[in-house]
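Escalation from tier 1.

The customer reports that the assembly of two entities below gives different structure tokens on two consecutive runs. Tier 1 could not reproduce it. I'm attaching the input and our single run for tier 2 to review.
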Amino acid sequence: MRLDLFNTTAFRLSVGYTLLVTLALSVTLGSAYLLTESLITDEVDLIIDSELKSLEEKFARSGVPGVTDEINLRIESWGRLGAVYMIADANFERIAGNVTHWPFDAMPAERWPEFEIATIEPGRRAVHPVRAAVRTLPGGDLLLVGTDISQGRRFAEKFRFAALSGIGLSTLAAALAGFWFSYKLARRVGEVTRTCQRIMAGETGRRLPVAGANDEFDALAMSVNRVLDRLEEQAGTLRATFDSTAHDLRAPLHRLRTRMDALLLRSPALEPAVHESIESALREVDRLQRTLATLLQIALAESGAPLAAAASVDVGDLAAELVELFEPVAAAQGLALACRHDAPAIVQGNRQLLAQLLTNLIENGLKYVPAGGRIEVAVRRVSDCVRLTVSDDGPGIATQDRMRAVQPFVRFGPGAKQEGSGLGLSLVAAIARLHRGRLELQSNDPGLRVVVELPA
Amino acid sequence: MHVLLIEDDGEAARFLVKGLRESGYSVDHAADGREGLNRATEGQFDLIVTDRMLPHLDGLAIIELMRAKGILTPVLVLSALGGVDDRIRGLKAGGDDYLTKPFAFAELLARIEALLRRRAAAAHSTRLKVEDLEFDLLARRVTRGGREVELTARELKLLEFLMRRAGQVVTRTMLLEGVWDLHFDPQSNLIDVHISRLRQAIDRGTDHPLIHTVRGSGYVLRTDP
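Tier 1 run:
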């Protein structure tokens, strides 16, 4: 399994983190912008208000002429920068001021109406935004006071630009950092995953890399390595137990067999009945020894010990050879035994164990299928595995018994009560598992179909 | 022929020594690994039969130390460890044959014989001939009394195996290992059926058959019955 960078927790976390950074920056800079803008406006409004107030007072004292004089005075003197004044009659006709005509269509409805003044400055035409307030004087004349707010506008624009580029750059930086971070993380996790897979594949001596950074990954790697050490040690102990069990059980069997052998060899004048019973006892010893060997082999395969002497094995060729080997026996029993195989169908495995697997399946067929029947061994390459099928048209195994059939010492049907150890399918299952394969018993309608899928 | 038996199981060793002597071999016995190695390096033996698990020094270590000293005497390993990888490890360590306990004494005799003869007949030839049975190894052609015999590829291999060991008893297990490269015992009497097919092809219609069954052991290809 390859690690997909875009499908890692680290990647998802860094995407979330980037979004969070963008959001936080947007909120901070956005409120700073709004706050600054309203501060600037408030200041402008305060000045306009106070000027209006002083002009209204002037009007109260000396009427329209007084206000006109005052306005002209303020325009001509070095007064406030960017100030706009106008006094107009009720029909919006200009009486005085530095604006050429009433800037609105009628009386503006809002409290702080804004408009634009076009000015001719040396070399270029400029448009200045103006924020203003309008008062109706007693008598119906209109007084307008405003301020050129182009500077404030420019400031706000710059602020906005700075804020937006800041957000953009930060997002980019966060995204890049996140990508790098998830890439690094994915690489380390990928190393761990790959190492684990190699260990599963049988390189039991391999350990997770410790970077020496003393971080949580190192801590994890060291813990996992300790677990692996422990498992290897246990496997070793188990193996030693197998060996001594095998030795301790086989040695007495061997002595027993040697004694009986010696008896037969050295006493040629034995009564035929005695001779026969010694020979039958010898056959029992051999059967016992075979059962013992099979049990040990199953136990060893199930112990998780790595596959011994794995090499490239062409299962198709192997199946053809075994079918050829068994064909005369099958023919003698009145059974048709045939093989169909694709070439090549190569798996990494142990030839002897795979041969044993096939042998057990063929022998099962020979045992259960009545004369006149047919056993077929087929080997096919399917995408990334080799599918081995042994099917027959014998009595088959009932659906509810199929799970049980691979358990040790389970036998079915009248044909096999005496013969066989009842371990055949258990060993097949163990060998398949040892090759990281899959075993399935299916109905062949009629008969049994055993399917073993081995990774190619 | 002088055989060294290294076996720590006293009772089994006694039977083996007795059986081998009765079969015409002169036998020395060593009861542990160290003694076995000393005997093997000092004495002149035609064959060494050693148990795999021994006190002091195990069978495979004996072979390695022996081979390191340049002693090329063939070695037959006897072992109570019968797993596929045990066998492979045994042969990799320099053993010439590997027999899992318990075994039939006849099987041991046949294998000892095969190892001793293998040494004698190492010469390569392109033709095998036993009486009027001839096998042209290059053309893969077999004739009996000048008449060509049709055989399948596997039957040719089986016949070659028997002819190369003419006069020697060959067991069913040896045939499975040598002809089919199978190192386990199938339950059926497979070999008997194949031999009887070969016999049909070779011996039918002649008054002196060449393939003979040896009761309790296996088969032998030879002129006299």
